[in-house]
Amino acid sequence: MRAFVTGGTGFIGSHVVRLLLQEGYAVTALVRPTSSLDNLRGLSIDIVKGNLNDPKLWESMADCKYLFHVAAHYSLWQKDRDLLYLHNVEGTKNVLAAAQKAGIERTVYTSSVAAIGVGPNGQVVDESHQSPVEKLVGDYKKSKFLAEQIAIAAANQGQDIVIVNPSSPIGPLDIKPTPTGDIILRFLRRQMPAYMDTGLNFIDVRDVAKGHLLALQKGKTGDRYILAHQNLTLQQLLQQLSQITNIPAPQISVPAWLPLSVAWFEEKILAPVGKSPTVPLDGVRMATQPMYYDATKAIRELGLPQSPLNVALKDAVDWFISHGYVTNR
């Protein structure tokens, strides 16, 4: 049982690779020539260097039975708009076509809750919800929506594809880091004097990996499954981090107009003259809408685990510190 994994060097993908090896699968991982291999070091896998839009990608999949298409370009910077559509939309189209040509039996496509959108006024939503694409904030969310539509269309045409929509994963190996990891890092570095009144759904990244394997084994073709766990306000997350680290949580909330103004000024005024912005405007715009999700379907149909979030947070904190991401402790 050989699985082909895209995005295996990343946060979710590296955990998927590890779980597949633990469960007895052989793994071939597609990696970009410029990618860091730190998350795959020491693992007994085959590595293929290339990219999602390679017209001969199918040849690398020829001896594989399954595909996990985890790779995506994640950026909230407006300057990366074209890259988002090139990798997330066109790349997904090419990867799924390659899988069909290579005779892949079943594909698990990693979408995102970003593609689903958000409920009105912070309402918790499930797989049946879909925000209109024009209501999705930023090109990252729009690109993930369009990529998911490609996967759905391919499934409707007979390709065996299951879609998973992770929320915000937490845990070790967050090498880049992700936006959630960045929140943890900024807290650890004492760079968070205040917070926005917003909220997210969080899940242990190892449960996300397990959800991918369960989707392969039990998922219904063409269906999507939200891989999520706990809905928390940002303040509640910071309080949990405070309990783990003994670092005081910020007590001041800021109105949305303040970070929106800073982000707009940095991206629209400073960035064009060569200054590196620190806060993406689309990231702040997203944070004005709580993003809460219900994983009941994945729990019921797949058996998605719901591991304690404080364990994932502690493991993330320990990993960041042990790997030199925090130097001011």
Detailed description of the structure:
The protein has helices at 11-22, 57-60, 81-102, 113-116, 138-156, 179-188, 205-218, 234-245, 257-270, 281-287, 296-302, 309-322, and strands spanning 2-6, 26-31, 46-49, 66-69, 106-110, 161-166, 168-170, 194-196, 199-204, 224-227, 230-233, 252-254. It has a domain at 2-175 and 202-232 and 290-308: Rossmann fold (3-Layer(aba) Sandwich). Strands 3-2-1-4-5-6-10 form a seven-stranded parallel β-sheet, sandwiched between helices. It is an alpha/beta fold. The chain is built from twelve helices and twelve strands.
Trace the largest sheet across and list its strands. Answer: 3-2-1-4-5-6-10
Low-confidence stretches: none
Strand content: 15-25%
By CATH, the topology of the domain at 2-175 and 202-232 and 290-308 is: Rossmann fold
- What Rg do the Cα atoms give? 19 Å
Instruction: Tell me the distance between the termini.
Output: 45 Å
Query: Under the CATH scheme, which class of the domain at 2-175 and 202-232 and 290-308?
Result: Alpha Beta
Structural class: alpha/beta
What's the helical proportion of residues? 40-55%
Q: What series of H and E elements makes up the topology?
A: EHEEHEHEHHEEHEEHEEHEHHHH
Architecture (CATH level 2) name of the domain at 2-175 and 202-232 and 290-308: 3-Layer(aba) Sandwich
Specify the overall morphology.
Answer: globular
Number of helices: 12
Largest sheet: 7 strands, parallel
Pfam family, one: Epimerase
Domain NAD-dependent epimerase/dehydratase: 4-226
GO molecular function, one term: aldehyde dehydrogenase (NAD+) activity
GO cellular component, one term: cytoplasm
